[in-house]
Write a structure and sequence with these properties.
Number of strands: 13
Number of domains: 3
Oligomer: single chain
Structural class: alpha+beta
CATH superfamily of the largest domain: Immunoglobulins
Shape: elongated
Number of helices: 11
Helix content: 40-55%
Largest sheet: 5 strands, antiparallel
Radius of gyration: 30 Å
C-alpha cells in the first residue's frame, strides 16, 4: 500500500544526504590549479603584445626564467603553442638543456616544432671546430636484418625511368649543369616506353640542347628491374672521446639500391666519456639481379661539417 507521507520523508532525507556529500565530491573532482607562471603562458600564446610584456618581466631574472621554461616544457600535457617556448629557450637556456631539446625533437607535435627544437639545440651547442678530432666517435656500425629479402610486386617494373644513377652518369659525362637541373623534375617518374621518356626529356630542354645531347642523355636511361625489399636496423655504437660534450648527427645513404622510406637523420648528444647505441630503422629496395647493396653512415658535428671518415656495410640481397 502506497504511503505518501513516508515516501516524502524518504525523499527529503535522501536529498539532504546528497547535499551534504556534494562539497566533498566537488573537492575530490576539482582539478589542481595550474602552477605555470602567467608569463610563460603568455609566451606560448599568439598575442605579440602579451609576449613582449612577459619577456620584459622574465629578463629581469634569466635563471628563474630558464627554470620556468624547463618546467613548462616537461609538462605531461603540453601547453598550446609549445614551439614558442622551445624557441625562447635559445635565449634563456644553456648547453645542459640540449638533451631535453632532442627529446622534444623526437616528440614534436608537428614539423614546425621539430625544426624549432633543432634550431634551439644548434643555438645552445658550441661546436669544437675540429671535426677530425672526433673521427673515433663511431665504435661499431652494423645491420640487424629483421627479415629475409622479399620480392616486390612493383607495377612499374619494366618501365623506363630517369634514375639517381642516370643523373650521376650525366655529371660524370660532364653534361652541362643547367641541363641536369632542367631534367631533375623527371627523376623517379616511370614511363611506358623509351620513346615516352625521350619525349619528356625533349620537352624539358631547348631545341639546340636536345639536338646536341640527345644520344648521350638516352644512353643513361634504363628499365626498372625486378626488385627485392630488405628491412632492418642500422645500429651505431658511439662514444665521446673528448672531455667536453658532443652534438652529432647521423645520416644514412645507400648505393646500388634505394630507400623505400628515407630515414630521418638521428641527433645524438654525448656527455664527455660516455657511449650510446642508436638504432635507425631502414626499409631498402635493390635490384634482384644484384647480390648486394651498400649502406653508408655519415657523421657530422652540428654546425661544423662532416667528419672525414665514413663507414660502409655491404648487405646481401639474395635470400
Amino acid at each position: 500500500m502506497f504511503r505518501p507521507r513516508l515516501f516524502a520523508l524518504l525523499l527529503v532525507s535522501t536529498l539532504l544526504m546528497l547535499l551534504q556529500a556534494a562539497p566533498g565530491m566537488a573537492a575530490k573532482e576539482a582539478p589542481a590549479p595550474d602552477a605555470t607562471p602567467a608569463e610563460i603562458v603568455a609566451l606560448a600564446s599568439g598575442d605579440t603584445q602579451q609576449q613582449w610584456l612577459a619577456l620584459a618581466t622574465l629578463r629581469k631574472d634569466p635563471a628563474a626564467a630558464r627554470q620556468a621554461l624547463l618546467q613548462a616544457l616537461q609538462r605531461p600535457e603540453p601547453l598550446p603553442g609549445r614551439w614558442r617556448l622551445i624557441y625562447r629557450l635559445e635565449e634563456f637556456g644553456t648547453e645542459e638543456d640540449v638533451p631535453l631539446l632532442l627529446k622534444l625533437r623526437e616528440e614534436a607535435q608537428n614539423p614546425r616544432e621539430r625544426r624549432v627544437a633543432e634550431g634551439a639545440a644548434r643555438a645552445l651547442y658550441d661546436p669544437i671546430g675540429d671535426a677530425a678530432a672526433i673521427g673515433t666517435a663511431v665504435l661499431d656500425f652494423s645491420f640487424i636484418q629483421t627479415g629475409r629479402p622479399t620480392p616486390l610486386d612493383d607495377p612499374d617494373q619494366g618501365k623506363w625511368m630517369l634514375t639517381r644513377w642516370s643523373m650521376g652518369e650525366y655529371e660524370r659525362e660532364e653534361i652541362p649543369l643547367a641541363v641536369i637541373k632542367q631534367l631533375r623534375p623527371l627523376r623517379g617518374k616511370a614511363f611506358d616506353s623509351r620513346r615516352a621518356l625521350s619525349d619528356a626529356l625533349q620537352k624539358r630542354l631547348a631545341a639546340k640542347d636536345w639536338k646536341a645531347l640527345r644520344d648521350r642523355l638516352l644512353a643513361s636511361v634504363d628499365t626498372i628491374p625486378k626488385r627485392v625489399q630488405l628491412k632492418g636496423l642500422a645500429r651505431v655504437r658511439m662514444q665521446n672521446p673528448l672531455q667536453r660534450p658532443l652534438l652529432l648527427r647521423l645520416s644514412l645513404d645507400v648505393w646500388f639500391g634505394s630507400f623505400r622510406t628515407p630515414p630521418e637523420p638521428a641527433w645524438v648528444y654525448l656527455d664527455p666519456g660516455t657511449s650510446q647505441t642508436v638504432d635507425i630503422p631502414v626499409d631498402l629496395q635493390g635490384d634482384a639481379e644484384r647480390t648486394q647493396m651498400r649502406l653508408d653512415l655519415r657523421l657530422d658535428e652540428i654546425d661544423n661539417g662532416y667528419i672525414p671518415d665514413f663507414h660502409k656495410l655491404y648487405l646481401p640481397l639474395q635470400p
